[in-house]
């Protein structure tokens, strides 16, 4: 019998990711020390939380003998891109169910074109149909594939993200991460040590993430885990919205610290942390670690 492939051996991740201090007077004048947890460097094609959430699911898919992967996302989904890349590297077929049937009549944007180039078959559905995902894999002809939820967030994914928290034990007082579906924050908080806390910055408005995170933690750990909170109000108009002021802030931060800043998640996180620091949300003497989850 052929031995199942080992995703870790083929994908070759490089955790733990580096934790680096940046000297920024805008934080220092408030007595806050800023560190960057460079999770964008953990894998060249599956950076940051995408690797951590996908890895346990990829292992389950391989061990279960599934013929391929099927997942969900919007037009600019980093999760779709990461799943497509993982499928190419592992030699597994991938199907991406994309929100917005109007996109089928347009040229593919750069993100979806990358998915297609990596071999992902794209299946476009209406926004109303997308809300009820249960029957969509079968509709897309992927009923026998391993299903990974939107954003990769499920109980297995939280076990991978908890390792991120364990890597930060003893390294900071507060660990902060941008949130799309809430899975990374849910796992990160569970992995931190007693006395540390996690802060999530939602990149989309609506105030729905708290319930989602509690539900995910219950599924993964049997109940609430870790000390965490959400900093709402920094979505800048919604998911994938990058106003000129946010883009300018990201460019300035990158120039100051030699770090290309991803706009949809990381820029909103750093903007929020600076605003919260100025508001006095972090006591003087706080060591603050910002998780850099992706690259431009």
Q: Roughly what percent helix? A: 25-40%
Average pLDDT for all residues: 93
Q: Treating each run of at least 4 consecutive H or I residues as one helix, how many helices? A: 12
- Low-confidence regions: none
> Strand fraction band?
15-25%
- Structural class by sheet pairing and helices: alpha/beta
Taking the alpha carbons of the first and last residues, their distance comes to: 43 Å
The sequence of SSEs as H and E is HEHEHEHEHEHHEHEHEHEHHE
Tell me the major beta sheet.
Answer: 6 strands, mixed
Order of neighbouring strands in the sheet with most strands: 1-2-10-7-8-9
Radius of gyration from the alpha-carbon trace, in angstroms: 19 Å
Instruction: Please count the beta strands (DSSP E, at least 2 residues each).
Output: 10
Any idea what the shape is?
A: globular
